[in-house]
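Researcher: Please predict.
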Amino acid sequence: MDRSTALQHFREQEVIPLLNHQLDLLETTFYHEQTELIEGVLASFRQLCSRIRHLQDRNELRAIGYIHYSLLRTQMLERSYLYMVEAYTAKWYTDDSEVRCTYDASWAYAPLGGMMTLLEQKRKRYIDSIHSADVERMVLKLVPFFHQYVKALLRLALPEATQMSEYQGILKHSRLFIRTGEYKDFSESLYIEGQEARKDEELVDQLLQEDEDSPFVYENLRQFIQPYFEVEKRDLRYNDFSYSELRNSRFYECILIGCRWQHAVLNESSFEDCLLTDADFRYSQLADASFRGASGQAKRKGEERSPGLCGLHFEHACLNGADFTDTQNFEHAYFEGASLEGARVPQKYSQSWKLSQAQFDSIVWTE
């Protein structure tokens, strides 16, 4: 077996099956220990914000424009699984101030160490065709598959993190971005806070644009007031509509992956045939809302499992009379403290949804 064939065989027969096994275990940890894991994120965020406030109180730091959770890929070979958590002014990486702490993500990456040990043993079967350096390179290429779980956890934690007094008390730039990714390399936004005033009429124009090549994503649309708003077939993923008033509005066949609707007024609104993967409706008003034909489908392409890890969140929402007929992939939906009086729900979710007895009895179960 030549070296090229050996490397391909090793990857397909040893690396990928082991990776999928570890990701299955990690997914179980992610769901079963989520509350404790979120607390770890909140602790790191609180620590960073306290340091920011301390320096700002001493006039040693200007308004913050970026907070970044950076994975340090090369350190993982040394079995160090710390993220660097940093704050920057609006200059971002050209900012020379150093405000940082760390976040321990061992819960997500510890399996990498065990994989490297096991793969090192297995590669010896290939005689001299595969070297230790090959194993290291292969393992480093797997880092993004573990990072997707950290990224999902950050998304779940940030709504609470940004309500902390430590965060509320820091001086922010007119646009503050919370992002994650590799250190001083590719990263993506998790949360955007805008301080500048924006007119609702301007937002309507942007949201209604029909240019498929210009999706309107990752925007802060909090406190957007537009009753009877209608939009079709738009990519609006990861927008934040929290505290908005959109009663009697209609979103039809829209991509609403990861959108936040916390504390929004959405009574009698429609999300029919929308893609709602990882959407967050906590504390929202959704009486008589329609989710007919909507999907919460998770991404399952090879080892990619995000979006879809966060699930659908309806905790403490009012869903009286809501219609979930013909919804798909809503198994990972959460309803703690939600009101579901008269909601129409397919029988297939009766086992997967964790409901109180009162919630279960108040639902109109359909075939």
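Model: Residues 275 and 338 are 22 Å apart (CA to CA).
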